[in-house]
Amino acid sequence: MLQHLPEPAADRAGVRLLLWRDDLNHPELPGNKWRKLKYNLREACRLGHDTLLTFGGAYSNHLAAVAAAGRLTGLRTVGVVRGEELATASLNPTLAQARADGMQLHFLDRATYRRQHEPAVVAELLRTWGPAYVLPEGGSNTLALPGCAELVPELLQHTDFDHLCVACGTGGTLAGLLTGLHGQRRAHGFAALKGADFLRAAINRLTEQATGRTYDNWTLHTAYHGGGYARLTPELRAFIAGFQRRHGVLLDPIYTGKMLAGVLDLLAHGYFGRGSTVVAVHTGGLQAWAGFEFEL
Ligand SMILES: Cc1ncc(COP(=O)(O)O)c(C=O)c1O
Question: Which atom of ligand 1 is nearest to the CA of 23?
Answer without folding.
Answer: 1
